[in-house]
Amino acid sequence: MADKEFPVDEFDRLASDRKVRGAHRRQESNRKWWIALIAIVVCAPLLGWGIVQWAGHRSDSTGDEPTTSVTAEATATPAEESTTAPEGDEETTEPAAEPTETEEPAPEADLATPVQIRNASMVAGHAAAMQQTLAEAGFTAVEANNYPNTSPAVSQVFYPDESFEGTALAVAEALGIPADEEHVIEGEGTEGTGTVIVVLAGDLG
């Protein structure tokens, strides 16, 4: 009966797969746990330090950007001020003074120029009186006689060319004749004579 073998069933297979140890089996060593604990203790601070360094580096790189923009704005402000400055200079710039017209000096009179006084006023002695007036003014070559032609409306002074203009104006001033184009005239038959001719009309007293 004891030697009788029974066929292998499901329970026999489970029993053969299970490894049962006795009560006096060797205890497993805790060295692996200690190694893992030491690794955690050592690596955790290093990992934390690395995270702190990485975060600090990102914050530094992020903080540089506002500084750059502020610097750019600060740099741009003087540029705008320097661009605006010339406008103030234009407003304060005084306009250039307009050139003043310089009066040409009056032609000088030659008191030695021959002067002929012709009386057309029908007043006796009028030419002689004007001759005396010119002599007192410094003229040294003055002659007086009558005017043979029709008496003009106003007294006039005639001179040969522009080189005698100063002398003619001085004669007119001394005799009280207006020094304008109606009374002091260039030409009129005196060209080439070298003489200033005065025609006295009735307008002079």
TrEMBL record:
Keyword annotations of the record: Membrane, Transmembrane, Transmembrane helix
Superkingdom per UniProt: Bacteria
Signal peptide per UniProt: none
InterPro entries named in the record: LytR/CpsA/Psr_C
Name under which the protein is recorded: LytR/CpsA/Psr regulator C-terminal domain-containing protein
Keyword Acetylation in annotation: no
Transmembrane segments: 33-52
